[in-house]
Design goal:
Blueprint lengths: L3 H6 L15 E3 L2 E3 L10 E2 L4 E2 L10 H6 L3 H20 L9 E2 L5 E9 L2 E5 L5 H14 L3 E5 L6 H13 L6 E3 L4 H10 L5 E5 L2 H13 L4 E5 L5 E4 L5 H13 L11 E5 L3 H14 L18 H16 L3 E4 L3 E2 L5 E2 L2 E4 L6 H4 L6 E7 L2 H9 L6 E5 L3 H10 L4 E4 L18 E2 L4 H6 L2 E9 L6
Parallel strand pairs: 7-8, 7-10, 8-9, 10-11, 12-13, 12-19, 13-18, 17-18, 19-20
Antiparallel strand pairs: 1-2, 3-4, 5-6, 6-22, 11-21, 14-17, 15-16
Bound molecules: adenosine-5'-diphosphate.
Length: 456
């Protein structure tokens, strides 16, 4: 792994390949024109300009297309992608069934078999990592894949397609179909020849996918959807740690995280100090070009997302929350939003209920553990949560009470390929990563044979 200094000095040679010039479709290891002959533009969110000559790009593609700061992309997205693919590659020859003793003269054993053709629809916030989360387990279980990247960020997936061919995958095992959701995405969800659909994106579209699967062939469905994750900070917590982790937990990736810890519940005795330190930290956050190695926060992915975030900020102001810092677009071009903090947030405000997907932190006050557990769980979502305390009893009490697929204690976003990840309630169905994620890509078959004893 490169260290930061080395990665900066070797920047130009990190991705030596030019991106394949075609913005089209990768089927059977060949670049195909779309039947309609249509193409669609892809943009650089840091400038708002169309990326027209993709093959001449001289930067890391993921940052160029998604606006993610280059160094975090290298250390989180790229390293995470490599680790995930390696982790699942190791399972390819280790997914075995069991023999089961049953009543009577029978031999019973199970086998894990591929599901078949897996449709995979991925979002724009972690284009490469989300591709790896879905390709890895599907391939390890022996499936074939039809993947649709988000329309905003098709470039790294197309780059993977070029590498797939170069690596020698048999034609047809991995097919990449860039396109729009209501057309290409919806076609995957309703296709009778697709046996499973795995989706990461908004809860609203997740419902459509599940409905389409139900109306077509009852294909298997796994969904990783939105969140409004609570982060609970008790008065006995290490305050420096809690402030910094809460900051990273909501502002990382410009807040474009399904796990974003956007509801911070802080115990009353430390509330004012927590807000003061959080504001001081947010004001120091460096917003700017994804290719500047000092940048902490790049742009939102698109004008649409920037507008959505700014509109929700306005709702917070008009509903009476206290705007502590930020609140506006940043800079003259691109889709940047200032790191924004609201205090005195009520649970019924839109900024406390709706997924913002932007750099906006809500800080609320609580008095008792019973109260905060109830308020933290009072949401349709259930993806992630966190608790900061030095008291092991509080940590475990809160962790077991959280209606969420993940709880972090004294840390945030500590994710790894080995651990199952997914949502309770309207944050999704099924799990990704870990053994649980692997088995979402396999059918288990029970084989039972009558034992006939004969004299030899
Ligand atoms: P966001 O609102 O953050 O863009 P979406 O849930 O709309 O998130 O998008 C996530 C992925 O779902 C993208 O690849 C998008 O193209 C796809 N998508 C959007 N609408 C549909 C749909 N009706 N059917 C299937 N996929 C869709």
């Amino acid at each position: 792994m490169l260290d930061r200094q080395e990665s900066v000095s070797r920047f130009p040679e990190i991705l030596p390949y030019p991106l394949h010039k075609s913005p089209e479709i990768f089927i059977n290891n060949e670049w195909q024109d779309s039947i309609s002959g249509k193409v669609f533009p892809t943009y650089n969110p840091a400038t708002g300009e169309q990326i027209s000559e993709v093959q001449e790009a001289d930067k890391t593609i993921e940052s160029l297309n998604s606006g993610k700061p280059f160094l975090p992309t290298l250390f989180v997205d790229i390293q995470g992608t490599i680790k995930t693919l390696r982790y699942f590659a190791g399972y390819a020859d280790k997914l075995h069934g069991t023999t089961i003793p049953i009543d009577g003269d029978y031999l019973t054993f199970t086998r894990y078999e591929p599901i078949g053709v897996c449709g995979q629809i991925i979002p724009w916030n972690f284009p490469l990592l989300m591709a790896a989360w879905k390709l890895g387990p599907a391939l390890a279980c022996g499936n074939t894949i039809v993947m649709k990247p988000a329309e905003q960020t098709p470039l790294t997936c197309l780059y993977i397609a070029a590498l797939i061919k170069e690596a020698g995958f048999p034609p047809g095992v991995i097919n990449i179909l860039p396109g729009y959701g209501p057309t290409a995405g919806a076609a995957i969800a309703s296709h009778m020849g697709i046996d499973k659909v795995a989706f990461t994106g908004s809860t609203q579209i997740g419902k459509l996918i599940q409905e389409a699967a139900g109306k077509s062939n009852l294909k298997r469905v796994t969904l990783e959807l939105g969140g409004k994750s609570p982060n609970i900070v008790f008065a006995d917590a290490d305050l420096d740690l809690a402030v910094e982790q809460a900051h990273q937990g909501v502002f990382f990736n410009a807040g474009q995280m399904c796990t974003a810890g956007s509801r911070i519940f802080v115990e009353e005795p430390i509330y004012d100090e927590f807000v003061r330190r959080s504001v001081e930290r947010a004001k120091r956050r460096i917003v700017g070009s994804p290719f500047d190695p000092t940048t902490e926060q790049g742009p939102q992915i698109s004008q649409v997302q920037q507008d959505r975030v700014l509109e929700l900020i306005q709702s917070g102001i008009s509903e009476g929350a206290t705007l502590e810092c930020g609140g506006k677009a940043f800079g003259q071009k691109g889709f940047f939003v200032e790191p924004t903090i609201f205090s005195n947030v009520r649970d019924d405000m839109r900024i406390a209920r709706e997924e913002i997907f932007g750099p906006v932190q809500q800080i609320m006050k609580f008095k008792t553990i019973e109260e905060v557990i109830e308020r933290a769980n009072n949401t349709d979502y259930g993806l992630a949560s966190a608790v900061f305390t030095k008291d092991i009893n509080k940590a475990i009490t809160v962790s077991t009470a959280m209606q969420a697929g993940t709880v972090w204690i004294n840390c945030y976003n500590a994710m790894s390929s080995q651990c199952p990840f997914g949502g309770y309630k309207m944050s999704g169905n099924g799990r990704e990563l870990g053994q649980n994620g692997l088995k979402e890509y396999a059918e288990v078959k029970t084989i039972t044979m009558k034992m006939v004893a004969k004299n030899c």
